[in-house]
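Figure 3 (text version): structure tokens given as input.
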């Protein structure tokens, strides 16, 4: 018993303090504007850089079903949520994904992150039902690089053209699109984005598509050699306004592990059980989120965010 207490005390200390004894930076949530759902880590692709460690047989995070997610959506509505967003894995591996989206899009606008390859393309007809919902469904497609060779080296031969084909199918159905791309630390962002716009033009897509750039977040459970974010860092280099822009200030994510759905602090920390905040959104909103995870440094340093709000 005493042993358990020591372990628990150590966990609490690690949550609040860095190894050097500094108080960790934290975010006090101010609202629930966006509620994310992790649809599961199953994916048709197996990219070795995937921050979720997703792949065809992966069950680290389990596939969601409509009946399980409804209560969270309904609670989120009472808390004033503005959008439901979905990430995987590949969301269209989940058998009930279209039903889930139909329910969600009759409550609020939705955003789905997808690789736009086979699982989505096989269900193009089913997606038509989403055009009759009260609110729009938007899709953010992963296109890691603006050229096929580099994209395919990470995702598999032919996936660059497949993703562009999926984007054309979605655009033809009238869905709003954006793109998730990878970001290199030393890149010339304007030049990279110009290359993407040329690709969009060549492939019959709207050249003004919004792009969201992400650094390398490493795979689940990896440790990274990045500085701790202390309370002093968060007050010296951030303001009250900028702290409100951190995802964990205005969003949560629902994650299903071992048959249980739980509220996590954001979309980037589902590999650390310290970020499991229980099963009530309203209770989770009251707790400070400690910046203990190595990915918190990306939020602090690059302003990384999965949100388009
Ligand atoms: S990864 Fe970013 S959004 Fe998530 S808890 Fe850390 S600081 Fe907040």
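Below: residues designed for each position.
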């Amino acid at each position: 018993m005493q042993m358990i207490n020591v372990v628990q005390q150590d966990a609490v200390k690690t949550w609040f303090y860095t190894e050097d004894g500094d108080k960790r930076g934290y975010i006090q949530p101010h609202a629930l504007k966006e509620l994310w759902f992790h649809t599961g880590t199953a994916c048709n692709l197996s990219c070795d850089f995937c921050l979720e460690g997703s792949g065809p047989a992966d069950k680290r995070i389990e596939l969601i079903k409509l009946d399980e997610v409804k209560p969270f959506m309904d609670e989120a509505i009472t808390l004033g949520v503005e959008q439901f967003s979905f990430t995987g894995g590949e969301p269209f591996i989940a058998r009930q994904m279209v039903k889930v989206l139909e329910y969600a899009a009759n409550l609020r606008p939705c955003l789905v992150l997808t690789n736009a390859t086979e699982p989505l393309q096989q269900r193009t007809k089913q997606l038509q039902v989403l055009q009759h919902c009260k609110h729009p469904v938007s899709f953010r497609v992963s296109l890691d690089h603006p050229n096929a060779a580099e994209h395919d080296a990470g995702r598999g031969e032919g996936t660059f053209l497949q993703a562009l084909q999926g984007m054309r199918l979605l655009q033809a159905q009238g869905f709003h699109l954006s793109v998730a791309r990878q970001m290199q630390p030393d890149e010339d962002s304007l030049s990279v984005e110009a290359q993407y716009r040329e690709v969009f033009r060549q492939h019959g897509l709207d050249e003004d598509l919004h792009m969201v750039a992400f650094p390398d977040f490493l795979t689940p459970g990896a440790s990274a050699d990045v500085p701790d974010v202390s309370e002093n860092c968060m007050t010296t280099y951030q303001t009250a306004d900028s702290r409100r822009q951190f995802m964990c200030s205005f969003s949560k994510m629902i994650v299903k592990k071992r048959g249980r759905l739980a509220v996590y602090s954001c979309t980037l920390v589902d590999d650390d059980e310290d970020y499991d905040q229980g099963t009530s959104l309203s209770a989770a909103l009251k707790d400070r989120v400690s910046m203990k995870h190595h990915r918190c440094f990306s939020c602090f340093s690059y302003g990384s965010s999965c949100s388009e709000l």
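Strands lie at 26-27, 34-38, 83-87, 110-114, 137-142, 176-182, 210-214, 251-257, 260-264, 289-290.
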